[in-house]
Amino acid sequence: MGSGGKAGGTPAPRPRGLVYAVVTVIVLSCCPLAAAGSEPPKLVVVLPPHGSDGVPGILQINRAIHSTFASDTPVDDSKWHIVEAVSHCLVQAVLIAGLLVQRVRRRRAVDALGESESRFRRMADAAPILIWTSGPDKGCTFLNRAWQEFTGRPLEGELGDGWAEGVHSDDLPRCLEVYATHFDARVPFEMAYRLRRHDGEYRWVTDRGVPRLSPDGEFAGYVGTCADITERKRAEDGLRESRQETRLLTGRLLEAQEVERRRIARELHDDLNQRLALLALELDTLSQVPPTSAAEIADRMQELSARVKDLSSAVHDLSHRLHPSKLEQLGLVAALGGLCRELTQSHGLEVKFTHHQGPGVMPPDSVLCLYRIAQEALQNVVKHSGSRHAAVELSGTADEVRLRVIDDGVGFEPGSAVGNDGLGLISMRERLLLVGGEITIDSRPLGGTRIDVRVPVTAQAT
After folding, report:
1. Domain for residue 116, yes or no?
2. What CA–CA distance (Å, rounded) separates 401 from 437?
3. Percent of the chain at pLDDT above 90?
4. Cβ distance 351 to 343 under 8 Å?
């Protein structure tokens, strides 16, 4: 069997292509079968080589079929036209059916995507954190209800690049650079910046964004969340400042210890040691050249006794400056009263001391803390304020003790004092931290200074 036609010179069908051959097979297969007992039909499709001019498929049907196709009579062109028309209809029907199926699937995918997007937006609006999404063009496409309530701006004003209007001007360039760089690289990012709240206050937020993909795997933009970290930021800044102050305090305390040691050494050497050496010399002279009369002996003994008493008083003053024994013996009220009188006598500073409902039983650490703060504050009045008048007030309740030191001197800026010569203020705060107390400093240049201290009666170290 060749490609020119059937045996016996029968003219071959007109070439119609492989599709028509297949459709012909389908049509011919639907013809009535031969009488019972015929051999089962056998269908063979032989395709010529690519580019051949023969019929694409030579159909060899070995079965009994309708009389029109049972003989070797050639199939006329009219029947092939019918086959061609039927094949066109079938192909068009298949194509239309495929398009309808594809359209239904696409509609279902779009509906599913819309439902998924709707569920996401409902969940995002119910979330307590700020949620946003952006498209492939980097523009913002969605902001949840929490974001709108936080900024107090309508959604239309925040979409696109509108959200950037609420970012602090100092943080905006860095924020946009981080966003654009990671967006172009399609990688997650995290950054912190200040965002304006509806009341005008700038709050620190941490922004985390990740790429998002469409159902077919294409890049669809970013989705991200923002959380308010202002309190954490303040705590971190406070901890950082506290560490800096602690380092500063440690260095200055070491320096103060060396200064105090030198002062004590000078007092011991220049004052007490010289006076003791002079007393020892006079005793040696007295032993070598004793007085001749009892009256002269009595006079010399009284003179030496007075010197010994002066030495004892000097040693007492020195020990009192190192640790006030009145605190343990007489209590806080008496010790503060004595401190005010000593400053009035030694420096001419008129200090008025008043107390109301003095504190009851207090831990020794709290008592020493209040005394040292009052001592440091009054010494600052003497050294820096230029004031000739000051007041110390002590009051207490069942829960806490309050101490106030006031002067009408030159005043200062509390913030600048810490960085310059504010060792006394730093030590006050550190002492109060140990007993759970608080301090408030109210001062301004040429406006005097007021220091308020509160210490719990049952304070414990914190």
Report:
1. no
2. 9
3. 24
4. yes
- With residue 451 as reference, give the H or E element that holds it: strand 449-456
DSSP E strands in 39-90: the ranges are 43-46, 58-61
C-alpha span between 421 and 35 (Å, rounded): 123
How far apart are the C-alpha atoms of 61 and 29, rounded to whole Å?
A: 9
Contact 163/143 with Cβ under 8 angstroms?
Answer: yes
Q: Residue 445 is part of a domain; what is its CATH number?
A: 3.30.565.10
Separation CA 289–CA 285 (nearest Å): 6
Q: Of the candidates 194, 228, 262, which is a domain's last residue?
A: 228
- 133-157 confidence digits (pLDDT tens): 999 999 999 899 899 999 998 888 8
Structure tokens at 296: 């002269």
> What pTM did the predictor assign?
0.43
- Domain with 224 in it: what CATH number? 3.30.450.20
Domain shared by 462 and 328, yes or no: yes
Q: Is residue 456 part of a domain?
A: yes
Q: 213 with 344, same domain?
A: no
Cα 75 from Cα 8, distance rounded (Å): 14
Minimum mean pLDDT among 138-142, 241-245, 340-344, 373-377: which range?
A: 241-245
CA separation, residue 195 to residues 5, 89, 205 (Å): 85, 65, 7
User: Helix (H, G, I), strand (E, B), or coil: what is residue 448?
Assistant: coil
**How many residues are listed for the chain in this entry?**
462
First to last CA, the chain: 107
Check whether residue 313 and residue 328 sit in a common domain. no
Per-residue pLDDT tens over the stretch 197-224: 999 999 999 999 999 888 778 898 999 9
- What residues pair up with 431 in beta bridges, in sequence order? none
> Does 462 lie in the same domain as 338?
yes
Q: What is the mean pLDDT of the chain?
A: 76
Q: What's the CA gap between 17 and 56, in Å, rounded?
A: 6
**What confidence tier does 77 reach under pLDDT thresholds 50, 70, 90?**
low
- In 3D space, the residue among 102, 96, 75 whose CA is nearest the CA of residue 20 turns out to be 75
Q: Is the pLDDT of residue 194 over 90?
A: yes
- The answer as to whether 174 is a domain residue is yes
Residues 83 and 205 in one domain: no
